[in-house]
Structures are given as C-alpha cells and as structure tokens.
Amino acid sequence: MQASPSSGDADVIIIGGGITGAGIARDCARRGLRALLVERRDYSTGATGRNHGLLHSGARYAVTDPESARECIEENRILRTIARHCVEDTGGLFISLPEDDLAFQKTFLDACSKADIPARALDPAEARRLEPSVNPELTGAVHVPDGAVDPFRLTLANILDATAHGARCLTYHEVTGLLKEGPAVTGVRVRNTLTGETREFRAPLTINAAGIWGQAIARMADVEVRMFPTRGALLILGHRLNTVVINRCRKPADADILVPGDTVSLIGTTSTPVPFEQVDDLRVTTEEVDLLVREGRLLAPALADTRMLRAYAGARPLIADEDDATGRSISRRIVLLDHESRDGCPGFITISGGKLITYRLMAEMTTDLVCTKLGVSARCDTATVPLPGSRETTAETLKKLAALPVTQRRSVVGRYGDEAQDLADGGPGSRSLVCECESVSVGEVVRAIETLGVHSLTDLRRRTRLGMGTCQGELCACRAAGLLVQEGVTPPAGMPDTLARLLEERWKGIRPVAWADALRESEFTLWLYQGVCGLGRPSGPNPGPGPGPGPITAGSPPDASGAMPLAPAPNGVTSHATPGTSAHAPNGASAPSPDGASAPTPDGGTTHARTPNPEPSPDGKAGGHAL
Amino acid sequence: MSVLDDTGFEACTKCTICTEYCPVSEANPDFPGPKHAGPDGERLRLKDPAFYDSALRHCTNCKRCEVACPSGVKIGDIIQLARNTCDTSRRPVRDFILSHTDLVGGLSANRLAPVTNALAALPPVKKILESTLGIASKRRFPSYARQTFRAWYGKEAAAAQALFKDQVALFHGCYVNYNNPALGQDILTVLNALGVGVQLLEDEQCCGAPLIAARFLDKARANARINAASLHEAVAEKGLSVVVPASTCTLTLRNEYPDILDMDISRWRPRVELLTRHLHRLRTAGRTATLHPLNMKVVYHTACHMERLGWAGYSIDLIRQIPGLEVVVLPQQCCGIAGTYGFRKENYDTSQTIGASLFELIEASGADLVVCDCETCKWQIEMSTSKKCEHPATLFARSIRGG
Amino acid sequence: MRYDVIVIGAGLAGLVAGLRVLEGGRSCALVNAGQSALHFSSGAFDFLGHLPDGTPVSRAPDALEALADQAPDHPYALLGRQRTLELGQRAEAFLRDRGLALDGSLAAGNRLRITPLGTTVPTWLGASEALGLDPATGALPWKRLLVATVEGFLDLGADVLSSHLAATGATTEAAIRSASLRLPVLDRLRTNPSEFRSVNIARVLDHPEALATLAAELAPLARDVDAVVLPACLGFRSNEPVATLSRQIGVPVRVVPTLPPSLIGARFSRILLNRFLADGGVCMNGDRVTGHDWNGPSLARIYTASHEDIPLEADDFVLATGSFFSGGLTSGPHAVRETLFDLDLREAPQDRAAWTSASVFDPQPYMHYGVRTDATLRGQLNGNPVPNLHVAGLVLGGFDPVHLGCGGGVALVTALAVADRILGTKG
C-alpha cells in the first residue's frame, strides 16, 4: 500500500451509502486511499434498496441502448464471480404474448447477439416447462442470463471490504454543508443524526454519490446538477411465484418484469415524474397497485391470486437534460461530472445515473478519476477479487455450519456467504428463531448487531431479512426490539418507540395492498401491538423509522432503459453514454428492490434541524460505528 | 389440484395457534412445530427444496393444526407433501413392517393367531423386536384374529346379507379384518336392524394411511388404485353407498387420496362416508331400530382424524339415542398413538407424554367405557388406562341385542 | 342434523352465547372455523377504555351516555345504557361461574393492566394472576418487586418492564429488581429451531418437578421482595401452577401476558369450550359454513365444508364470526362484505384508500366496518331484519374495539343479549 497522497482526515470523502458510494469506498480503499463514507441514514436506504433486484443480462436494453446492454452483460458476468453470495442465477425469459408483435423477437435476438448477450429462442412449450408459472398463452420466448441480486447484501459486502481496507464508513451522518476554500470543496460538515453532534471532515476530494439527493449536495457546492426524479413503484408478492425472471419481449413498459428474489417475487415497475419535495416520502397509490397487478398477471396469471406483502417506490436519480423542460430527455446512463473542469469547482465530483448492476463500473470510473487527480497509480482490482462472503463455495461454508438446523444454515449462508461461518457455534438459545418467516435466529441477530452496524429495527431488517416475510414483522418486531435492548443498542425506555417506528414503516408499504389476507394480518398486528401491548405512536415528532430526513442518501444507479441520452456533454462530463434512440422505457430497470426499503420521513427538508433519534445507544455505539 | 400447487399456505397470518394445538410440539422439543414446518417452511422450500428439515418426520399427521387454523391452511397436508417430495432418507425395515398392515395382518390373522399373539406379548420377544427392529417394547401389540373378517363373511354372512332389499358396501379396514372381526359383525347387526344388508367390496387393500406416514408412496398409490376401482364399482356401477367404520380410513380415502396422492375421486367421494354418518342418514330417512337400555356411563373420545373430518357429532348423536346411557364428551385432545407412530421405539415416550392428560381425564371420569371411532386410539387408551374402549357401532349393536 | 340453536363462531361471543342457550335448556351446536381471537387476547376483557374523542374512561357506567352521543351506532348505544350495564354485570358472574378466575367489575371501575412493554391499558376483567395496578391507588399493590424473566425468552424484557413501570409512577426504579432465570430444565426447548414461546415453556414448567426447579431458582432471589413478576409462561391448563409457585417461594406471584399465542387467553378459550361440551353442546371444530337456504325471511339451514350435503338446521342461528381476521368480514381489492350471508353492513366504501389511515397509530376506518342491526341485534338484508339470525361480537359494525378498548365488553354483552332473545327472556 502506497503512502497516503494527502493530509487531512481522508484522501477522499464519499457522500452516500448506496451501492455506488459503497462501491467507490471499496475501490478507493483497495487502491490505498484513505476513504471516508458518510450516509445520512443506513446503507441502501435510497434507490439502491428500492428496485427489482434484477441482475440484468442487458437484454432489456439490447435494442434501444446497445452501449448499456454491453455494460450490463459485462458487469453481470463479473458479479457472478465476485459477489456470488448476492446473486441468484435464475435465468430470464422475454416472452411474447398474442398481443405482442412476434417479429420483434427477431430484432431482439439480433440485438442481443450484437451486444454479446447469450440469447436463445424457446418455443412456448419449452418456456412453460422451464417456468411453469408463465402465462400459458405465450407465443414465444427468449432465454437470457438474467438473474437476481440482493442489493442490501451487495452494498454491505462492499462496505465490509472497504472497512477491511481501512475505509471509515459512518451511517446516520448527514451532510449539512460542504467546506469550501475559495471555489474549491475541501470537505464536509456532518451531523450525527442519532446524537445531534456535528463535526467537520477535510479531504482533497469529495464525491457526491448521493443519488437523487445529489442535486441538493451539488447546490451546497454552488454547482447545478439538474436531476429529474422519476418514481418507480413495485409490489412484493408473498412467496416465490416464479423461479426464472419473466420479462415482456417488447419495448419496455410498465409492470413488465417479474423477478424472483430470495423468498419472494417482485413485480414492477411504473415510471412517473415526481416532484423533488416527495422523494423522501414516496407512497404508492391504489391505482399503481391495481395497474401492477393487472399488467403483472399477463406475465404470470397466478399473480392475481397471490398474496401481496407490500408496495414501495423508489426515485431514480436521473440527470435532466439542461434544455428539456419536459424531462423526456433524460439519461439513464452513467454520468460522471468533474466539477473542476465543468464548473470550475475543484475537489468535487458527482457520480450518478447508471444501474444497480453497473455500480462497480461506476465506482471504477470514479476512482480512476480520483486517482488521476491525486496522482495515485494503483490499478483497479474490483472486477476480479471476490467480495467478503463470496470467497469460498456455498458447499464449503455449509459444511462448517453443519451443526445448525437446516433452515437456519441455508438461510445464513444465503445471506452472508462464507462470512456466516462465525455462526457455527452459538450458546444455548442462539438457535431460537426471532423471525420464523425468514428463519432469522437469535444468534444471527446478535451477530448483526455486533458486527454489522445496527442502530434500529429497520437497519436489522436490511441486514437479516427480519420482518421481510409474510407477517411483515408482526411477531418478530417485539422480540427483535428486546434483543436491541439486551445488546445495548436501544435503552429500555426507547423500546416502544423503536417498535412503533418499525410498525409505522411496515404499514406504509402494507397499506396500498391492504385487502384480503394482508388486511387480516394488519388487523392482527393492530390487536397485538395497540391492543395487547398498549403501544402508542412514537413519542418524538419524527414519525418515520429513520432518524430523519435530510439531503443525503446514497443514490443508486438509475436505469438506462431507453431514455434519451444525455445531451452533448457539458464541459468536463465523462459521459459513458452514446446517443441512442430509445423510446421510453418505463420500467425501472434501475434498482428498485426486494423490499420496501426503509421509510424516509415525510419532510423532505434538507438542512433544518430535526429531533434526534430518540433511541441513541447508551454506550457510544450511536452512529458512526466502525465496521 | 394438490396442496402444493395452490397457494393456500399464504393465508397463514403467523398467529401461531396451530403450535398450541400440536400434540407433538408439546411433547417433543425437536419438532419445529406446525407453523414453521408447514407454511413458513413451504416458502423456504419453494426457494430451494434443500431447505427441507428432516425434523418434519416427527409430525404424526394428526391434523389438529388444520382444525385449529383460523385461516384454513392445510398445514398437515403441506408437511406430508414436503416429506414425500423432499425426504430421501432410507426407511427402516421396522417402518415397512408397521406400515404394511395387509401383509403382516395376512400372515398373522389365521389359526395360529393365538400363538402369534401370545408370542408377541412375551417380554423377551418384545425386547428382541425393539433391539432388532426398533418397535417399542413397552407397547402392547394388538392381537390378531383366528380368522379374517372377510373369510368369516364369505362363509357365514354373504348369503344372508344378499337377501336385504337395501344394500350398502362396507370398507371394513385392516383392523376389522385382521384384529377385530367382531366389530364387523356388530356393524352387520346394526345395519341389518335398520333393514340394510351389507356387501363387501370386490377387493379391498389397506387404505394407505400407514404407508403414507412411512413414505411408502408407491405402495400407497398401488393400494389406492385398487381401492378406487372397487369403490368406483360399488358406487357408480352398483349404486351403493359405502360405509367405513374407522375415521382414519375414511379421512384417507376421501381426503388424502386427492390431497396427498393427487387422485381424482370425485365420482365416488360423495357416496363414501363414515359408518355413523350413514346411520344418521338412515335415521333421518325414518329407519329406526328397537333399542334396549344400557345403564352405564361412557366418555366419547374424538380421534384426531375424526376431529379433522368434523363428523364426531354423528357418532355422539348415535350413542345418545341409546336409552339409559350417560354420554360425556371428552375435551378434544390427542391420545398420542397417531397410528403406527407410537409403535416406533423412538416415539414411545413422546406418544405417552402426549396422551398423559387424556388418560388422567379418562381415569377420573368414572366412566364404564370409552367410546371412539379409531382403533389405534383404542389400543392406546386400553394400554394406558384401566378402561376398555369400543367403537360406537359395538355399543349400538349391544343396545339392539339387549345387552 | 337439527339443533335448537346453531352458533357460528367459537370466539368469546360464540362460546358465551352457546353456553347461555345450553343453560336455558336448548340444544346447541357450535360451528367453529378454527380457533378464535381469544387466543391472542391479553387474557383480560375490556369494557370501555376511551371515548371516540379520546377521553379516557375510568368508570364505564358513567361514560355510556357520552358514548351514545359520540357513537350512536355502537352496540352499547343500540342496547341502551341500562340494558348494557345489566348484561355486563351478568357477564361477570357468568364467566366466573364457568371457571374463569377474573378480578374486576363494572361497579369498581376500570383497572389498569400492565402490558409486556410496561405500559398500562384500562380493562374491566383481568385474569386474577395477571399483574395490574391497584385500582384505588393507581400504584402497584407492592413496594418491592422482583421482575424475573426466563433466559432466552424474548417476549418480555425485565429492564423494559421495570423502566416503564417506574416511568408511569406506579413504582420507583429503585424498588424493582430484575433477574433472568437460567432454568436448565428448558435447555432442550432452547435448542428447538423455532420461536421460544410462552406456551411451549409453560408446557415444560407446569410439570411439578420443573416447577420445583423454578421455585428453587427463584426463592433466593425473592427473599426480600413483596412480590414476583413473571412473564405468563406458566399455567397452560389452569392457573394452579402459579398458585403453587407462590406457595413454594412464599410471596405473591403475578404474570404479564405476552405475545401470542396468549397463554391466558387460550386457557380461557379452552375452559369455556370444554364447559360447552360438558354441558351437552356439540362442537364442529375446523368446519366452515359454505351455503344456506332461506325459508321466507328466515334462515332455514346452513351447509358446511365438513357436512357437505347434510344440512345443519336450527330454529335460531347466532352469527359470531368476528371481524376480518376471523373471517366474519371479507375484503377484496375493491369491496368489503359480510362473508356468509352478505348481510347489510354499516359502511363499506369501495375505494380502498378510504379503509385505512396513513399512520398505523391513527384509528383505522376498517375497524368500524361490520354488520348493521337495530336494537334487536338481528342481521339485515336490504334493510329487513332476518328474524332468526342473531349477531354478536366483533362482526357487528359501528365501533373500533381497539381504539375504544371495548371488544371484550361488546362480545360479552351482545352474546348474552342475543341468547336472552333466543330464550325469550328479554327483548
């Protein structure tokens, strides 16, 4: 490792703990830079955690955006090696229905071939055998190497590797301002949202990887990055309806991707512009739900009778074309802005656009620019070195955990890969389940609290899947809250609020689908917590489960599906995009995810003061944990 | 449609009521309980069948979880199907012997039965059976008859039964055939008193309940095909109703064939029913018999599969017609035997723990007799209490005969 | 099959209605589609905890007039204050006569029960072994408390309970000690790969030898306290083990009911059901109604999943099927209906967005939905009462049982009211 190229608190400060920020932190740290990542909430709380979790083969973009398609298939291959434990090799089908033009299939196959995407036409009977849930009326299908990727695991694995290489990663640290010397950005001013404490960090370079919130960060540097938030709504189904990703073989549209991910399937998405004021509190409407069900049943008819667990929406951090007021001309490509050359603002870089699965490429591009600026010559190795968790085979790890009950053994290896081996020997009681839906044990929860930086029940959920199953936290919430108290994360007096915040967050996603069994379950939850347990609303004025709103959350890669390319690159833009034609591609191929990620709080404010999270840790754990 | 093809498991609201009514959960901490083994596990197994937990073998398939479930989830069926599709472990010889009731019954129910019965009751023999086969030595084995019911019927009854204008067919089951032909004779007494003659099916095999429990599915299917053909012939070709004395056989024929073995039995299912339910129909149609008082007190025990059928009311109503008889219905509770489950060495203690509080209630009841529609419950109750246990038809026949 | 009365639903309302008609000499069958919501209750019955405007109620009898003003559709308002109170008082005796050990009365006013989070909730009748505040003083009846939990049992944290009890002013933090009981007798259960539940624990601890080890571990810890508080994980079949433990350690023992399944609620359900059987009732467990025939304006018979073509006939039917959870009400994406007979509902908008509130802690409109009746509590079809279809419990509309804290009272009062009407003694 070479000597640090700069003085100050870090060589590079990364704003945003989404997949992009995490990937940059990893790449920078591995190249010997002292990296500091700050995230206003928890990891993966922006668009990273609010997408399909689709490991794109690139086929979706092959016709409309060959460049993106090629990026996707290359990164798809890389992630299958370096992030094995975050990826499921499901394969994908692009199906044609009677109302679709079957001639498009030929165009599609040709385009896949040009982009080097292995694609093979199947007759309807073969497709039905491969995926029994597929609409039996299909007239044709193309098989492609789509898959599923768990964005929470992927982000965390990047963070773990970054910290193992010396990066500091601080969650619940919100950027309240940028430090400037003349035109240059020289660092950040942050506030610990759990304790209210503020501090400053200095570094020669600051990277804005804050996703849709990056526009506000850029304004702090007095530069203008016009983002254009579009919301994508998705539904989570109660179980794995399909085992193969199902897409429509046509120009991308609403609700035309059904992705199996872990224990559930996800249908999405929509694509509608959303005002900036709403990006912190996106709520799915009944109309959106009805549309997703209506369209989704065309992919797999059983979807209409399948229980819905929740609905959620994410905002794609798309960069608006400076000249287009309508927002139609928006790039979903990777956009790397060097504000020194573009705006005369040294020390400040913005990375945005892209897709969940191209995060590594985005991180490499950004880190290359950082290294150039800092005069560091280290080469990127993130395409070949496996992430923590993907270093040994599943079979090897399973063998080490032979003593665990099978459902727990398989679950933890699925969630943590080879990192799960710490769970091999737990004391008595460590195998009791906290969350029976997702098989999350006491031992797993305690390990997450001890090693994965957990400050609340929603943080725990992102790391373990606790509360992501059928009952949406109904029974496990109380037990997990008890463990947070036992492990010193939450003081005893804070337990009801911790619980109340989780329930409020879960309800936000359940409410749009609250009919039939979901309504029954909701009534049961209400009886339990408000009846039996006498739980009331959280005492603080902050109704959200998170510590509060604020400008910074890492963004995630948006989708490139067919949007218009970025207009001629302004000064200093390293645009990875080549112009394409593209019709609107509604689906958010971007990153929306397997869960309704955490709930932002409805205030959307940026820098004004908020009530600190009333569940700070008594032992200094609050915020800024070191991984 | 088999249970796994539908998504009924999603109606589970995780209320956990089933765990409270699961007799195995109460007695065996190795069992993860019906909720986790059933609907929760099903979601995981849909992700990857490797999530199958071999602890599901502890389930006795009593189906009390299904009765307790307020969401209509077929929890027991989900567990059975998961065992059938995911469990690839080898089955011991013992399980073969316990589950192949036809084979063992055929070999034992003959003139040598008294010798076999005496041998099987000898402690040294039982020890050997336990150490070599894993059959619980503390368990009292049911004794075999000297002559099967079918053999008796063919010789002694067939001609007379054919004289009745109205006829039903009887699915007698292994127990009546090999162990207790006297119950078969009681059934004839009761039905004849109501003016109905009894025929046997063309061919009858074990219904398959013990085979399904021990995962001998090929044999279960083979039996089911033969039984289905006989039942179809009786119902569709001869226009007969078929009566079944045992609750487990009834449940297996009517529910497990379609739900677990995925058979279409819609042609004969409505006409195949529990004996006491058919007796209710005859009574409703105005058929009555002259009953003599039985001045005694009985307690009625609802077998698990009877509870699942929901038909205990027919048996209770039947014996409540008997003058002089005091009938008290015991609280719904498993006796612990669960068919062949309690005969396995490793399950003996669990089995007795499950039944313990029922045995206490029976002893404390002051009853002269226990009444139950299930023969394995009878064995368990007779072995574990001081009371005899009889089928409702036996009691009813006694009242018809006058004591 | 024919009975004088068929009760559909075996929750609190169905069981009490069934027991009462048996007492009145009628034959009765209970059709029970799975176990009831009583299994999740706290083991306490509330009568009226709050008025719709949020005003806390300390004495229900004094609040019924205000309730009638604010919620004229509430079953209490339909029955009238005097009748409601008379039925409520009868319910107290009725339940005690049938073996439920309950403290409290309408005359004494609301008591405060203590939840596993340490909060207090107004209640009417509480299991006598459950921890509650002294109604007279609003404090705990004891000065020095030991809160003992079971190691590995996550449903009740001793620290959480203590800190909230102190915060309510019921006691002081200094007066409460907490302990976590090791209880090696539970170790085998601790390795069970499922939730470490109160019911499973109770089924171990209720055995006399296990109870003795609990007493042995607890006794030295309890030497200088006035009472011991445990999570409700003792006493599966009766509350006898709690009393035994108390005798063995020499100080009063109180329990705090925890997450479902509720040990006390389930025990209450079992006691009432067994009593129903003992009194000669017929129970059709795990069965559900699938069809029915009308006879003019009346209900002639019902058909069920188990009985298929054999109908169940009765002179009177009681509909006590509960709310959405229990299946009495059904919702699709754009409609709410009464599940079995499509009876008239009080309100049931088609717009799904109107069923719920944005915050889970705001009253949820769907909780008010339910069957419309007049003071006779008979179900209606197109505004016409069905003469022999009586409605009781949470399937009734016009009230939010959680927000008002009145679910137990409504179930008991309406069950006795419909049984009276069937027996011809009132109404």
UniProtKB/TrEMBL annotation, chain A:
<dbReference type="InterPro" id="IPR000447">
    <property type="entry name" value="G3P_DH_FAD-dep"/>
</dbReference>
<dbReference type="GO" id="GO:0009331">
    <property type="term" value="C:glycerol-3-phosphate dehydrogenase (FAD) complex"/>
</dbReference>
<dbReference type="Pfam" id="PF01266">
    <property type="entry name" value="DAO"/>
</dbReference>
<feature type="compositionally biased region" description="Low complexity">
    <location>
        <begin position="585"/>
        <end position="603"/>
    </location>
</feature>
<comment type="subunit">
    <text>Composed of a catalytic GlpA/B dimer and of membrane bound GlpC.</text>
</comment>
<dbReference type="GO" id="GO:0019563">
    <property type="term" value="P:glycerol catabolic process"/>
</dbReference>
<dbReference type="InterPro" id="IPR006076">
    <property type="entry name" value="FAD-dep_OxRdtase"/>
</dbReference>
<keyword id="KW-0472">Membrane</keyword>
<dbReference type="InterPro" id="IPR036188">
    <property type="entry name" value="FAD/NAD-bd_sf"/>
</dbReference>
<feature type="compositionally biased region" description="Polar residues">
    <location>
        <begin position="572"/>
        <end position="581"/>
    </location>
</feature>
<dbReference type="GO" id="GO:0046168">
    <property type="term" value="P:glycerol-3-phosphate catabolic process"/>
</dbReference>
<keyword id="KW-0274">FAD</keyword>
<comment type="pathway">
    <text>Polyol metabolism; glycerol degradation via glycerol kinase pathway; glycerone phosphate from sn-glycerol 3-phosphate (anaerobic route): step 1/1.</text>
</comment>
<dbReference type="Pfam" id="PF04324">
    <property type="entry name" value="Fer2_BFD"/>
</dbReference>
<feature type="region of interest" description="Disordered">
    <location>
        <begin position="538"/>
        <end position="627"/>
    </location>
</feature>
Automatic annotation (TrEMBL), chain B:
<keyword id="KW-0004">4Fe-4S</keyword>
<dbReference type="GO" id="GO:0004368">
    <property type="term" value="F:glycerol-3-phosphate dehydrogenase (quinone) activity"/>
</dbReference>
<keyword id="KW-0411">Iron-sulfur</keyword>
<dbReference type="InterPro" id="IPR017900">
    <property type="entry name" value="4Fe4S_Fe_S_CS"/>
</dbReference>
<dbReference type="GO" id="GO:0016020">
    <property type="term" value="C:membrane"/>
</dbReference>
<dbReference type="Pfam" id="PF13183">
    <property type="entry name" value="Fer4_8"/>
</dbReference>
<keyword id="KW-0408">Iron</keyword>
<keyword id="KW-0560">Oxidoreductase</keyword>
<dbReference type="InterPro" id="IPR017753">
    <property type="entry name" value="G3P_DH_GlpC_su"/>
</dbReference>
<dbReference type="GO" id="GO:0009331">
    <property type="term" value="C:glycerol-3-phosphate dehydrogenase (FAD) complex"/>
</dbReference>
<dbReference type="InterPro" id="IPR004017">
    <property type="entry name" value="Cys_rich_dom"/>
</dbReference>
<dbReference type="InterPro" id="IPR017896">
    <property type="entry name" value="4Fe4S_Fe-S-bd"/>
</dbReference>
<dbReference type="Pfam" id="PF02754">
    <property type="entry name" value="CCG"/>
</dbReference>
<feature type="domain" description="4Fe-4S ferredoxin-type">
    <location>
        <begin position="48"/>
        <end position="78"/>
    </location>
</feature>
<keyword id="KW-0677">Repeat</keyword>
UniProtKB/TrEMBL annotation, chain C:
<keyword id="KW-0285">Flavoprotein</keyword>
<feature type="domain" description="FAD-dependent oxidoreductase 2 FAD-binding">
    <location>
        <begin position="4"/>
        <end position="410"/>
    </location>
</feature>
<dbReference type="GO" id="GO:0004368">
    <property type="term" value="F:glycerol-3-phosphate dehydrogenase (quinone) activity"/>
</dbReference>
<comment type="pathway">
    <text>Polyol metabolism; glycerol degradation via glycerol kinase pathway; glycerone phosphate from sn-glycerol 3-phosphate (anaerobic route): step 1/1.</text>
</comment>
<dbReference type="InterPro" id="IPR036188">
    <property type="entry name" value="FAD/NAD-bd_sf"/>
</dbReference>
<dbReference type="Pfam" id="PF00890">
    <property type="entry name" value="FAD_binding_2"/>
</dbReference>
<comment type="function">
    <text>Conversion of glycerol 3-phosphate to dihydroxyacetone. Uses fumarate or nitrate as electron acceptor.</text>
</comment>
<keyword id="KW-0560">Oxidoreductase</keyword>
<keyword id="KW-0288">FMN</keyword>
<dbReference type="GO" id="GO:0009331">
    <property type="term" value="C:glycerol-3-phosphate dehydrogenase (FAD) complex"/>
</dbReference>
<comment type="subunit">
    <text>Composed of a catalytic GlpA/B dimer and of membrane bound GlpC.</text>
</comment>
<dbReference type="InterPro" id="IPR009158">
    <property type="entry name" value="G3P_DH_GlpB_su"/>
</dbReference>
<dbReference type="GO" id="GO:0019563">
    <property type="term" value="P:glycerol catabolic process"/>
</dbReference>
<comment type="similarity">
    <text>Belongs to the anaerobic G-3-P dehydrogenase subunit B family.</text>
</comment>
<dbReference type="InterPro" id="IPR003953">
    <property type="entry name" value="FAD-dep_OxRdtase_2_FAD-bd"/>
</dbReference>
